[in-house]
Amino acid sequence: MSNLQELRSQHLVETEWLAAQIAAGSPRLRVGDMRGYVKTHTEPNGYQTADYLGARAEYLESHIPGAVYFDWTSDIVDENDPVPAQIAGVEKLAQLFAENGIDNDTLIVAYDAHPASQLATRLWWVMTYLGNSNVRVLNGGWAKWLKEGRATTAEVPALPFATFTPNLQKAWRTTAEEIVENLGSPRIRLIDARDAGQYTGEIRRGKYGGHIPGAKHLPREALFTPENTFRSAEAIAEIVESEGVGREERVVAYCNGGVAATSVLFALSMLGYSDLSNYDGSWNEWGQRDDLPHEVG
Q1: Is residue 92 scored above 60 in pLDDT?
Q2: In terms of C-beta density within 10 A (0-12 exposed, 13-18 middle, 19 or more buried), how is residue 212 classed?
Q3: DSSP element (H, E) containing 252
Q4: How confident is the model over 9-47, as pLDDT tens digits?
Q5: CATH number for domain 3-169, candidates 1.10.10.60, 1.20.120.450, 3.90.550.60, 3.40.250.10
Q6: For the segment 135-144, what is each residue's pLDDT rounded down to a tens digit?
Q7: According to the model, what pLDDT value does residue 186 have?
Q8: Which of 18, 27, 20, 12 is nearest to 157 (CA)?
């Protein structure tokens, strides 16, 4: 197995593998259902609104056997933060995972129904930030699982309470102030994972449109096949290298709410990039602040 193949196996699992693990009753496995949606509406002037929605009702109707549900709009966020979708505090997250039978040795497989797996990778980032690297994303997610006719259930599992002890990896989360301090630095590489219209400023979700000065545009959709599975490591590497993203750089990705950015960070981690960080506030924060620079086009 090549180094890239090994790295990929440490991040992604295929549906066949997960089905076999479930059938075997693997005691250390927990499956996390991260389904949810971003519903947008764009006005003729380019202003866009977005509603962040969970999908607990869909989970209760049907899910992968043994899966527990995490609502990305409430369970893993700080609902008191004025910036939408910010990661919850350590205590809240530790309690959430403990209540769902997850300890520091648990293997977590996350899935969602998004074509870019961005809610599943959001859970991967949350767990990585908390110091647990034993997380995988289901390649192709819920759609591929259903397409292959694999087992589903409406049964909600009863899981034993566990003890989850966070070991915070602060470098994985970046603030606006840290970005401002490093604007123009050759060591930091900013990547904008949003749609092209949002990057150029034609579509404006905040008070201001455009992007952070110097940010490269790498939309998360570029990392996926038409079947919504991750492209090969070689194909992703070619895309990343064409943007001039060097392994010696600190890569900070952002989007609107720090969610789509995690798809890009996940892909870079699969390639062996190690100095990675998520600007969690993203454009939900940056695009509202008068004191921060903005660039259009």
Answers
A1: yes
A2: buried
A3: strand 250-254
A4: 999 999 999 999 999 999 999 999 999 999 999 999 999
A5: 3.40.250.10
A6: 999 999 999 9
A7: 86
A8: 27
Q: Per residue in 235-290, pLDDT tens?
A: 999 999 998 898 889 999 999 999 999 999 999 999 999 999 999 999 999 999 99
Tokens 């991260």 -> residue: 34
Measure the CA–CA gap between 27 and 16, rounded to whole angstroms.
18
Q: 157 burial class (0-12, 13-18, 19+ CB within 10 angstroms)?
A: middle
Give residue 110's pLDDT band: very low, low, confident or very high (50, 70, 90). Answer: very high
CATH 3.40.250.10 in the chain is located at: 3-169, 171-286
| Three-point CA angle 147, 148, 151, nearest 5° | 105
- List the catalytic residues: 255
CATH of 171-286, one of 2.40.170.20, 3.40.50.2300, 3.40.250.10, 3.40.190.10: 3.40.250.10
Q: At what angle do helices 118-129 and 260-270 cross, to 10 degrees?
A: 70
Q: Which residue has the tokens 């694999």?
A: 150
Following CA atoms 253, 116, 127, 31 in sequence, which dihedral angle do they give, to the nearest 10 degrees? 180
Measured between alpha carbons, how far is 272 from 267 in angstroms, rounded to an integer?
Answer: 9
